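Progress report, Aim 2. The chain analyzed during this reporting quarter is listed below.
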Amino acid sequence: NTSAEAEERAGSRTAMRLLWWAAVLVLVTAASQPVEAFKFDFLHGVASGDPLSDSIVLWTRITHRFEPETTQVRWVVLDSEGAEVASAVELAAASSDFTVKVIVDGLLPATEYKYYFEAVDGDGGSRSPTGNFRTLPDPSAHVERAKFAVFSCSNWGWGHFNAYDAAYAYDSAYDFWIHLGDYYYEYGPETYPSRAEAVRARGLEPPHEAVSLEDYRLRHATYRLDPDLQRLSASAALVAIWDDHEVADNQFPPAPTTTTRRQRETSRPGGIPLSEHTTSGYRHGPAR
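Predicted structure tokens for the chain:
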């Protein structure tokens, strides 16, 4: 155990040195280029969700090398012919972790649309990937068939999310896709799975159990970096069902876990109300 701990500490020191040099490189690069050269990025992809016959939720997160307090982001919805049917400018702020989430109304039932986001600030050249969604049929309509994929319990440590990729490869034209809950896990890397059991033993952020609001935001953002999840999210609208790990393991009586009890200690530094955990999940996903 001592040897393993020493190796882990050495690895952490190496990682910190690499991060330090990367920061130096960024600063040197910044000093040598005009401000307008810095673009905003959409590193976490795009997503749509909770479709109705006349409405959809659109989501993204914008990233900048030197994040300002706020930045303007424009969203655009297009019909199947590429004509713009709706658009507006929203404010992405540090207080919401630079996520942009809008509800678009006035759409036609059972209709396919495309959408994208673009940065208004900066050099104006930053644009997200293009996403697709389909509105639901009118409530009075007779529906003979619906095509959707179903997932649950997406745990970073247990493996890569190639089930998302397999579903997309099988058919990229779903009416929607459903996640039954535990879209991500709040556990640290030693819990479930353990490091010995983990398929993906590295890369989980934060590298400990999620407790604070910032922890939950970072965990959401880490999952959203997965390319297979991004590909599926852009292809169809998500219907999300909440379970416990999006907030905290077994958060309701009669048997809350130690984690849940600690997260309820809101007077303790780092402890936040469960409502704020839910807010983090709300901001980081396309749910109403």
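The longest helix spans residues 2-32. The radius of gyration is 21 Å. These observations will guide the mutagenesis work planned for the next reporting period.
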